[in-house]
Design a protein that fits this description.
The chain is built from 14 helices and 14 strands. By secondary structure, the protein is an alpha/beta fold. The longest helix has 14 residues.
Length: 413
C-alpha cells in the first residue's frame, strides 16, 4: 500500500456541505475506518490526506475536506483550506444527501472545477433515505451523478469503476525516461553524496528514475561523479544516456564525451511533472534581470535547510555571478505558494518530486496568468553551465514534443 509515492497517486478530493457523509463515504470506498465519522456537523476541520490502495482504482490519495458551508471566522478559514485542496486534486467528488438543496455553495464549487478543467462527479450519499431534491437539480442541469449508500454499501463498487473511467489522462504522465530508452540500454545515474543526502539511502528522484529504467528492461548503473570516468572505462560500449544531479553538471560535462547523451534528474522531472517547454522559455528571463528585481524560489517540499542549500544559498550565488545584479529572493516551501505573483520577475521551481503533477501544473498556470516567467532548478543550472541544448536533446522524439524557441548562444560562465 505504501510503496507508491504520494506524488504518483491519483488525488481524489471529497467535497460537500457539512454532514453529507463525506467521511463515511471514504470509509465505505476504502473498506476501512480511515476517516472519523460523527453525527455532529463539522467534524472534519483541516483537509485529511489518506494514501490507499483501492481496487480496481489502484494507488490513490483520498482527501477528506471540511464542509464548504462551514460558518464563523474559523469556518471561513477551513473553507479556504478546503479550496486550496483543488490545487492538488485530479478528480473531484461532490457529496450531497438526497434532500440536499443544491445552492450557491455547490454552484461556486462547480464553477471552480470547470474553470480548472477538473473532472467531477456528484455522489448522492445516504440514498437509503427519502428525498429527490438533489437528483432533480442534477438531472435538470445535466450534471453527472451516482447514487450510493455508505451505510448499506449500495453503489460503492459502481462508484469505484466510475472514478477509474473519469480519471484524467494527465494523472498518468509520460514516463520518466521510458520513452527515450530501449531494452538493454545502459543508463548511468550520477548521484553525488553530500551533506544534503539522507543517510543510508538515495533521494526519491534517483530511486524513481532507476525503477523506470528497470521497468523498461534497461540497465541502470549508479555512481558518484568522482567514479564516473572509471565507470565509463569499465563499459565495452558507450552508455545510451547519463543522468546526473544538476549540482555537478559542470563536472560531469567536462568528463563526458560530446557524443554521449546527458541530462539531469531535475530536467527529467520537469518534463514528467510539469511543462518543460515553459521552463525553457522562462530561463531566458535571466538576461533581462535588473538590480532589485524579486525572484521567487518555490520548493514543493519541506526539508532541513543545509548550509549549502541549493535554493537558499547556491542558486542566489550562481545568479549573482552570472547576472552581476543584486537580486532579492523569497523562498516558499511545502504547500505555500503566493496568491499574487506579479511582483516577481522570475519564479524558479524545484523538481517537484514530492508533489503530484496537478500541483506543479497549477503553479505553472498561475505564473502564466500573472505574466511571470517560470523555470526550474535543472533547466536553470543547465543554462548557467552552457549545456542547456545538450540536456534537452535526449527528449527530442519522446512522447512530449519539445517546442522551444531557437536556442540563444549560451552565455554560461
Amino acid at each position: 500500500m505504501y510503496r507508491t509515492p504520494a506524488s504518483n497517486r491519483l488525488h481524489i478530493g471529497i467535497f460537500g456541505k457539512r454532514n453529507t457523509g463525506k467521511s463515511s463515504l471514504i470509509n465505505a470506498v476504502t473498506g476501512q475506518e480511515a476517516a472519523i465519522v460523527s453525527e455532529i456537523a463539522g467534524t472534519t476541520t483541516d483537509p485529511v490526506y489518506k494514501s490507499m490502495e483501492i481496487m480496481p482504482i489502484g494507488p490513490c490519495m483520498l482527501i477528506d475536506t471540511a464542509g464548504i458551508d462551514d460558518v464563523g471566522i474559523l469556518g471561513e478559514e477551513r473553507v479556504k483550506r478546503t479550496l486550496v485542496v483543488l490545487r492538488k486534486t485530479d478528480l473531484g467528488l461532490i457529496v450531497v444527501s438526497p434532500d440536499t438543496t443544491i445552492d450557491n455553495f455547490e454552484e461556486e464549487l462547480i464553477g471552480t472545477l470547470q474553470k480548472k478543467k477538473l473532472p467531477f462527479l456528484f455522489v448522492i450519499n445516504k440514498c437509503e433515505l427519502p428525498g429527490n431534491a438533489a437528483q432533480d437539480y442534477l438531472e435538470k442541469n445535466k450534471l453527472p451523478f451516482i447514487r450510493v449508500s455508505a451505510k448499506t454499501k449500495q453503489g460503492i463498487e459502481e462508484l469505484k469503476l466510475k472514478i477509474m473511467e473519469m480519471a484524467p489522462g494527465h494523472w498518468s504522465p509520460v514516463p520518466l525516461v521510458g520513452d527515450i530508452i530501449s531494452a538493454k540500454d545502459v543508463v548511468i545515474l550520477v548521484c553525488p553524496i553530500d551533506n544534503a543526502m539522507p543517510q543510508g539511502r538515495l533521494i526519491l528522484p534517483q530511486v524513481q528514475v532507476m525503477r523506470d529504467c528497470l521497468d523498461n528492461n534497461a540497465m541502470a548503473l549508479v555512481t558518484k561523479e568522482t567514479e564516473l570516468l572509471d565507470c565509463l572505462k569499465a563499459l565495452k560500449a558507450k552508455p545510451r544516456l547519463v543522468i546526473t544531479d544538476s549540482q555537478v553538471f559542470e563536472d560531469v560535462r567536462d568528463m563526458l564525451p560530446a557524443d554521449i547523451a546527458l541530462t539531469s534528474f531535475s530536467t527529467v522531472f520537469a518534463r514528467h511533472k510539469g511543462d518543460l517547454n515553459a521552463y525553457i522559455r522562462g530561463v531566458y528571463a535571466l538576461e533581462g534581470l535588473k538590480d532589485g528585481d524579486e525572484i521567487l524560489i518555490a520548493e514543493a517540499c519541506t526539508h532541513h535547510v543545509q548550509p549549502e542549500d541549493i535554493g537558499r544559498s547556491k542558486i542566489p550565488s550562481w545568479l549573482l555571478n552570472y547576472t552581476k545584479k543584486e537580486l532579492h529572493y523569497e523562498v516558499t516551501a511545502g504547500g505555500d505558494f503566493p496568491e499574487d505573483l506579479r511582483r516577481y520577475k522570475l519564479i524558479i521551481s524545484c523538481g517537484g518530486c514530492m508533489v503530484n503533477r496537478r500541483e506543479i501544473l497549477h503553479r505553472i498556470q498561475k505564473a502564466k496568468d500573472a505574466g511571470v516567467p517560470i523555470t526550474n532548478y535543472g533547466v536553470l543550472m543547465a543554462y548557467l553551465s552552457g549545456i542547456l541544448e545538450r540536456v534537452i536533446a535526449p527528449f527530442r522524439g519522446g512522447l512530449v514534443e519539445i517546442d522551444t524557441p531557437q536556442f540563444d548562444k549560451v552565455r554560461g560562465k
